[in-house]
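User: Teach me something about this protein's shape.
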Amino acid sequence: MVKYSVTRIMKPNNPSKNSSETKRKRAVRCIQATRSRDLAVQVASIKNGLIREFGIALGGHREVLKSALNEAEAIAWQTPYPHLVFPVLAEEKAVAVNRWAARQRNVTRISREISLAE
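Assistant: First, the predicted structure itself:
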């Protein structure tokens, strides 16, 4: 009986190169995750500030404001610079909701006056 020896051809193993590349990739992912978390915290802080600022004036329309701010956040996250886009867009939407709520109050007041006049 003849025995055959099988040798496997392996790529040269360079653990220092592979591990340094892996470490670098992990570090980059970690930094990106940290930046995303930091941005998410900043966005949430701005959103809460706008809800406090405009929420009192809106009275019963606070949910409309929250919805508009969520929409602004979704649009901002689609850009490469959400931390720059969100504050401006969110404030524009908050002002628009505030104008809408004022118009609603005016319509309600006028309809009451008309119904009382009849």
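Now, about its shape. The first helix runs from residue 15 to 58. The mean pLDDT is 78. If you'd like, I can walk through any region in more detail.
User: That's plenty for now, thanks!
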